[in-house]
Amino acid sequence: MALLTSAAGAILLLLLASTLYSLICLLRNYLAARKIGVPVRIIPVDHINPLWLLVSQRVVSVFRRLPSWLGNNNITKYDYLGFEIPLRWSSHAEMGDAFVLCTPSRNWLYIGNPEVITAMLKRPNDFPHDSQLTAMLDVFGPNISTAQGADWKKMRKLMGSCFIDQNFEIVWRESIAQASDMGRYWSSQPSVETVAHDTRTLSLNVMSRAGFGKSYPFKGHHETHVALKGSSMSYKEALQTILENSILIMALGTKLLAKPWLPGFFKNLHYACTSFQGYMTELFEEGKKTSTSERIFDRTLMNSLVRASQQETTGSLSEREIYGNMFVFNFAGHDTTAHTFEWVMLFLAANPKVQDWVHEEIQYVLGGRSKEEWDYKRDFPRLKRCLSVVFESLRLYSPVGLAKWTGEHSATLQVGEKMLTIPPKTMVVPSNASVHTDPRYWGSDSLTWRPSRWVEAGPSNSNDIDGEELISPVRGAFISWSEGARDCPGKKFSQVEAVATIAALCKDWRVDPVTNPGETLDDARKRVSRFIEEDTGMVLLVQLLHPERSPLVWRKR
């Protein structure tokens, strides 16, 4: 009994000490935040605290059930991952172009002005990324997402020689082929509840072909076999296993996964990692042999990276750096593309007039040519309406945000008439959910999905479609691929993949929501629009949380 009492007392003392320490840290950070000179909101736990992430949604849900005078507080507004999505621009409308969230572990400065965001992103030395937040990405080797300074410049230079038209040709053709097979599969089903799974398959297959030269036929959810274990694990199965469990792998590391006392699930993850490493080694050796080839077929990302590194005399990449960057290409491009496709499919299903508008462009540009005759260089630049569908979906829901910090030194930033002095170790976050929907930059219908806002009619004497041009929004008001020196190197890769996929699907099929009993098709479309807004949240990326709850039906045109 005495032992239990002592243990309980020790635990209580530990909790009290932890609470006191947290309060001291919160006070220290609050005093630092006040000196910045912008509005400050206090939250008791950092919204990215790992333990808080496990319970935050439940705690916030409980608080929201309380009377408004108790439930409407900083915890329910700001203290959970993805709080920016429902708030949009309202916090900045209330507090101005900059405000601070003060937590016990750090301060977060949010910026809601495109001009300030652009200025900040042009200064990567003053506002670098926090290497502690990205260090896990080094699981297969150093890479462009974790590198700083001279190492980053070296990698960025070499990346530029990988994402080129010869690689985009591969992306274009593979996306058309995969999307066509996906459309045939979807139209063969009475309804489709597996958009999330199937678009991940498409994205993985495109990356496999364009990244490593490995081709796989598209197989829908009900055609897919469970990934094999042991010696029969293929390249695709290994990569898919890694991507589906990437956070766990990055958190634990491949060495820990190899421990014999771990359950079989972890051993299978380790086997996937070693298999993928082995495949990358084989492809690396093949890349060295084919790196002098000019054939488009050989211009995969792996071959291009090997070739660029071999030709660079002063700053080549090590073998581990090549592996690290190839992993990051896959990690960064897989789920982000798949989540974007999920929104696109639902938005199209809810907006039949947009489908017709896009189909009109596809018919005009591509005509009666077979899909094998579609030409990347000639056709991709003309499919502006298809690209506008992607832009508009990402404007409302971007899977990935940006987060910089001041590092070990303070930094200054001009916000309106004020010159802010930002203390060391302060996170600085462009509020993309705000600037993407702020009526000052997007008009009074800024929360409406309207792809035509991106397309400007040409001169009156030109053909309506041929004369159309994509508008350029206020710089810094659309940052789905980031801005400045550290923008996303795979930006055009993803755009080519998305446009080719949309064109292949909308050329031959149209999509509608499945109607519930007693529901008209128009009612179903309105329900899908509400569903997108209500079901979008953040896990590790911004995504639809339950896309299977809004099934679709695909029919031949």
From TrEMBL:
Pfam families: p450. GO terms for molecular function: heme binding; iron ion binding; monooxygenase activity; oxidoreductase activity, acting on paired donors, with incorporation or reduction of molecular oxygen. Heme binds at residue 488. Keywords: Heme, Iron, Metal-binding, Monooxygenase, Oxidoreductase. InterPro entries: Cyt_P450 (IPR001128), Cyt_P450_CS (IPR017972), Cyt_P450_E_grp-I (IPR002401), Cyt_P450_sf (IPR036396), Cytochrome_P450_monoxygenase (IPR050121). Its cofactor is heme. CDD domains: CYP56-like (cd11070). PANTHER family: CYTOCHROME P450, CYTOCHROME P450 12A4, MITOCHONDRIAL-RELATED. Belongs to the cytochrome P450 family. This is Cytochrome P450. It comes from Phomopsis amygdali (Fusicoccum amygdali).
